[in-house]
Specification:
Bound molecules: flavin mononucleotide
Order of helices and strands: HHHEEEEHEHEHEHHHEHEHEHEHE
Number of domains: 1
Strand order of the largest sheet: 4-5-6-7-8-9-10-11
Structural class: alpha/beta
CATH architecture: Alpha-Beta Barrel
Mean pLDDT: 93
Shape: globular
């Protein structure tokens, strides 16, 4: 992450040195030929910025309101499972680091620390739900998350089955003790796998069980985004699961404008996938995201230095965003509008009466 891609590459190399090859590859890898994994990063680079000049940017204010709550920065940590593989304190250290940096945290259904322990160290946090084959397990987890202080439920919609990842060579990498930390004694692993029969009806079910707003994660199309909103979602999270599910799926930088246009003011839009620098965050906000999440970069920080490195990494990313905002002539996140960017090369969009890329 952070100021530039070279910083990010150095971070990845440091993580590679401290992690076993199996764990590093499990985290770093993507599905199939990893075309979506690679395209996620490169597509942001294709988004050209159109900075404004002679704006008073003496005070940069990166605050943002998300689901009615003011956050100090528009950058959050995406849900990533099994973090004790990266660091002995796992999700607890991630929570502490995110809180120190003012970053919203998303806790995975596959957290390898108990959600209540993570919540005790967290600032604002959301809980990510997989609908599991035994739907009762999901209801129970979501109720526990709400009781522990989660402020939204993130329903991951892109994982009816797990993508095939060629770098995952060790079938025993996630033992039952890690997989089932939040599932109670004697759980049946097959029943806790992701359910392929998850549908839009689960949005309202999760909202009713938790009493919390529901965000759908993994949306890549405008029509799906509208269906999510019609089904009761308060937010739509543009994601291809970091290139780990359908290889060949559209990179998020390309999907985001379509989703943002389809949703309009009916719900909030967030994005993740390949965001590595402050400029990438700016690009995503310009293309219509209210909030941006990072997955692997936060994991690499956790691996190399626990909570302290997570806090430092996220703080650096936020600093880089503020610098980019100033240079783009946007003093507040509200001033980061679509006209600040042009879409990835060759991909036109529609916005506010425009039928083509405003720069063409
Ligand atoms: C090791 C790993 C585990 C993940 N676990 C989950 C998960 O449990 N639930 C989920 O919704 N997404 C999961 N994701 C996807 C992330 O939430 C996020 O969409 C993705 O990592 C963003 O891309 P980035 O890593 O390029 O920032 C995981 C990603 C990785 C790399």
């Amino acid at each position: 992450m952070f100021s530039n891609e070279a910083d990010h590459r150095r971070l990845v190399e440091r993580a590679r040195q401290v992690l076993s090859a199996d764990v590093f590859d499990f985290y770093a890898g993507g599905a199939g030929d990893e075309t979506t994994l690679a395209a996620n990063e490169t597509s942001w680079r294709g988004v050209r910025l159109r900075p404004r000049v002679l704006r008073d940017v003496s005070l940069i204010d990166p605050r943002v309101t998300v689901l009615g709550r003011e956050l100090t920065v528009p950058v959050g940590v995406a849900p990533v499972g099994y973090q004790t593989l990266a660091h002995p304190e796992g999700e607890v250290a991630m929570a502490r680091g995110a809180r120190r940096a003012g970053a919203l945290l998303t806790v995975s259904s596959r957290s390898s620390r108990r959600i209540e322990e993570v919540a005790a160290e967290a600032g604002p946090w959301w809980f990510q739900a997989y609908v599991m084959r035994d739907h009762g397990l999901t209801r129970e987890l979501v109720r526990r998350a709400a009781a522990a202080g989660a402020t939204a439920i993130v329903l991951t919609g892109d994982t009816p089955y797990l993508g095939r990842r060629r770098r995952d060579r060790d079938a025993g990498l996630i033992p039952d003790e890690v997989f089932g930390v939040n599932l109670g004694a004697g759980f049946d692993r097959a029943l806790a796998e992701q359910a392929p029969d998850v549908t839009y009806a689960d949005v309202a079910r999760l909202r009713d069980v938790s009493g919390l707003p529901v965000v759908v994660k993994g949306v890549l199309r405008g029509d799906d985004a509208r269906e999510c909103v019609a089904a009761g979602a308060s937010g739509v999270w543009v994601s291809n699961h970091g290139g780990r599910q359908l290889d060949g799926a559209i990179p998020t930088a390309e999907a985001l404008p379509e989703v943002a246009d389809a949703v309009g003011d009916a719900a909030e839009v967030y994005a993740d996938g390949g965001v590595r620098t402050g400029v990438d965050v700016l690009r995503a906000l310009a293309l219509g995201a209210r909030m941006v999440f990072v997955g692997r970069p936060a994991l690499w920080c956790l691996a190399v230095g626990g909570a302290e490195a997570v806090a430092a990494g996220l703080t650096e990313l936020n600093g880089a965003l503020s610098r980019a905002m100033g240079l783009a002539g946007a003093a507040t996140t509200a001033e980061i509008t679509r006209e600040l960017a042009r879409s990835p090369l060759g991909i036109p969009w529609r916005s506010e009466g425009q039928t083509t890329d405003p720069a063409t």
